[in-house]
Amino acid sequence: MRNTTVLISGASIAGPALAYWLHRYGFAVTVVERAPALRAGGQAVDFKGRTHRTVLERMNILDDIEQHRTGTTDTVFVDERGARLAVMSGEFTGGDVEILRGDLSEIIYRRTADHCEYLFGDSITALTDTAAGVHVEFEHAPARTFDLVFGADGIHSRVRRLAFGPERDFVKHLGYYYAVAGASPWNGSTAGPRERVVAHGHNAPGRLAISGGPKAQQMYMFAAPELDYARDDSPAQRRIVAETFAGVGWEVPRMLAELGEFDDFYLDSISQVTMPDGYTKGRVALVGDSGYGNTLGGFGTGLAVVGAYVIAGELASADGDHTVAFARYDAMMKRYSKIAGNSNAGRFLAPKTARGIRMRNWFLESRMFALMTKYGDSAANDIDLQDYPALVGATDPR
């Protein structure tokens, strides 16, 4: 088999999932991650439908996910006095099974750590794609050459920037930001599925604050043009949230007072990645949010694990010939990734006018909302998932 050495950038979900499959098919895998270790906790992510479940079963991790899943969460929208206005069902927001991002990352990492090389606390600084391989320079490690390189490093992908071009050419700001603070109190140290729970949310025009639930102890969403802030400056980001939500009623003053107490805090734009010419270029390919991300679009984690399964399987089917495998991957995932291509969670969850908030609440209580939920279930399965039967005979890494 040709092209046997591969580098994956990113060790969240897409990266370890891709490492799992590539190792099974006989590739020598290195994963580089800029964080010093796996990121624990984090907001809940979810899987929906037969296709996602099939891939998880073939990875032999579905039982572990079930044991660490969070509860199905209904979000109750309330007025300033806390009176119920509408309910957004957990089946819509959480799919069939939810799990904290950190727990899922740990589960897949454990299946790959003994078989793949992980470089934590490092990052790629330069890529040179040649006919013979990709020469990679790192921030700390010595330069190396790999047969193939995969960007699984999120919406702000460094691999995409180095191989395809600047972020502004591929990432569209959708007019909103979101922030999460405080990891869910449910974590991997307490195994066992959770029951149905309730989070509460309150809207002001262009703003939404949610308290409780497995997504995070606090979640904020607000309309804004592109903001100029440093992505590693947490105090400045917290000030943005505090200033944006100043004067909002309900429990928001209490939430803002507690905001500084949480060690974990994350702010980012709600954005969409668009790759009109495909997710591959030469010997480089993008998997997960780096190629088809749509923040809070509802299918991101499922797209990531399906994408990892598809590109690894196609490479194995093509005996490592990336020109064949990458073309098939582009065709299959371009169609499938459209399920997340038209959604804007900010516009739906934080309407910019009082009338828009009332219309959203009416919609949540209507039969039309139930029909939209069913459409989401159908779209999540809209791919001809290959079996790659003759190639999955290797010992499953555990």
From TrEMBL:
<dbReference type="InterPro" id="IPR002938">
    <property type="entry name" value="FAD-bd"/>
</dbReference>
<dbReference type="InterPro" id="IPR051704">
    <property type="entry name" value="FAD_aromatic-hydroxylase"/>
</dbReference>
<protein>
    <submittedName>
        <fullName>FAD-dependent oxidoreductase</fullName>
    </submittedName>
</protein>
<dbReference type="InterPro" id="IPR036188">
    <property type="entry name" value="FAD/NAD-bd_sf"/>
</dbReference>
<dbReference type="Pfam" id="PF01494">
    <property type="entry name" value="FAD_binding_3"/>
</dbReference>
<feature type="domain" description="FAD-binding">
    <location>
        <begin position="4"/>
        <end position="317"/>
    </location>
</feature>
